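Write out a record, fold above all:
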Amino acid sequence: MGIRDLNKIMLTGQVDAEPEMRFTADGEPRTTFYLTCSGSRDTTTAERFRLVAWSTPLAERCNDLLQGAKLLVEGRLQRCTADDPAEQARFPLEVRVRECLVIDPGDAAAMLVPTSPRPPAPPTRTVNLPVAPHTPAPQPPARAPLPVMPARPTGPRPTIATKTGKR
């Protein structure tokens, strides 16, 4: 049996700029964003990594990240496949994201507003149709009032017969 190599990287850092989502010719989403990681011993130096997230749920979640959010990212290193030759020169390696966990969202108020990864659809053409005049809804016929029974009967009280016949 052969020995398998391991290509795994875990990073913590802050999102450096707003993520950018693009779509391939097949319609698969790809989100690119940058993560700045400061060194644990020397806080004056920082490394900037280019991260790429593929597939529908992961790319859409990464596209919703805000600048300044603190992340824990797990992925693997791969050669840069940037469309721009200058990007390939600046970032010869990129991190292909497998998992992304938000440690601190940064601006929490902005996180509450959901954003759509795709631009909204153009407005549709509206047609003004003639409107019929408003007529009130028909009312059910009124019911006749019920007769009111008196609380006590009027007139002489009935007599109760006893064995002796007297009252």
User: Anything to note?
Assistant: Residues 108-116 have pLDDT under 50 and may be disordered. The longest strand covers residues 93-104.
